[in-house]
Prior knowledge:
With 359 residues, the chain is of the alpha+beta class. It is built from 8 helices and 18 strands. The protein has 2 domains: 2-171, 2-Layer Sandwich (D-amino Acid Aminotransferase, Chain A, domain 1), CATH 3.30.470.10; 179-345, D-amino Acid Aminotransferase, subunit A, domain 2 (D-amino Acid Aminotransferase, Chain A, domain 2, Alpha-Beta Barrel), CATH 3.20.10.10. It has helices spanning 67-71, 94-107, 115-128, 201-205, 208-216, 263-274, 286-294, 332-346; strands at residues 2-3, 12-13, 38-45, 48-56, 74-76, 79-83, 89-92, 140-149, 162-171, 179-183, 221-222, 240-245, 248-251, 278-281, 298-305, 309-318, 321-324, 356-358. The termini are close together. 2-OXO-4-methylpentanoic acid is lined by residues 78, 238, 305-308.
Amino acid sequence: MKVAVNPAYEIDIHLSPVSTIDSVDFENLQFGKVFTDHMFEADYLDGKWTNCAIKPLTKLQLHPATSALHYGQAIFEGMKAFKNQEGKATLFRPDANLSRLNESCRRMAIPEVPEELFMNALFNLVRIEQDWIPNTDDGSMYIRPYIFATDDFVGIKPSDTFKLVIFCCPVARYYQKPVRVYMQEEYVRAFPGGTGAVKAAGNYAATMMPLQQIREKGYDQMLWIDGVTHNRLQEIGTMNVFVQIDDTIITIPTDEGTILKGITRDSCIELLKAEGFKVEIRDVTIQELLDAHKTGRLHDAFGTGTAATIAPIGVIGYKDIAYELPPVEGRKASNWLKQEMWSIRKGISADRFGWMWAV
Ligand code: COI
């Protein structure tokens, strides 16, 4: 277990005199709909992060010309806190989230967040909100840091001022059932040189219309296809994708800069390799996937993400056909991963990669 170092950034802490925790049904949480009592807020002004405060959760007051609302200079992260079997609060790989947050900052011309500031904000907030971490089997506290441009300005230039906010939600599973994904070549999520590799708010905005269309056909998410060959699988948007063809578990490389470098994706690759599964990081084409399905060699398919953890894919849609995948119960790789990830987070399996941080 690592413990966060004591940081240099001072945070003003104002605790809420009241809590809404007693009104929450922790056994029936809907993802992203319940919020804890406090939030963290800081401003980037005159070239530095300042006004760091933890305070009661409240609405933000914004100028109508706030530039992020027009031009989308905004990024976010997703991370989770857990209660281990001793009832202690832990965070999963917060260092990896910080490094990805700062990668997103660099791509979007947003000032990076110093480690001391981020860790101080995060650990203090999670310590204050630790009673909100559900003790249920699939519960956790989802943490959403985000940064957006706050210049009151109409015109295209990088903003000089920004706001960093962190808020928390007690959550259960993101997907309640095996996910139904759909592949199409018309709309593209990300292309080389774009922002697909980072967590830019606009990446998600561009997916809403195609998502709306496929939801009308009974699908949950798009399985995005690349915009150069219109033939290679990319990611799901909420998740990275893994497929098992024969005895090989394959996930898509991130080096083209079009796919989010998922922290859960990376953790799954490490765990699978350490357990002796055959793992390949390479492209998969639509045709290869459909052929594998046709010949009974597509044994497993799942998405990985912070919110979704490990989510089995039940159906892959393409054109007018819904390709049903094997029953979830019989799948070896994704079921093992799910169990192992849960055990590490609960402190039952050894934390052999040093992923869990004591809060
Ligand atoms: C996450 O998994 O943390 C994400 O940001 C995906 C989001 C759609 C909930």
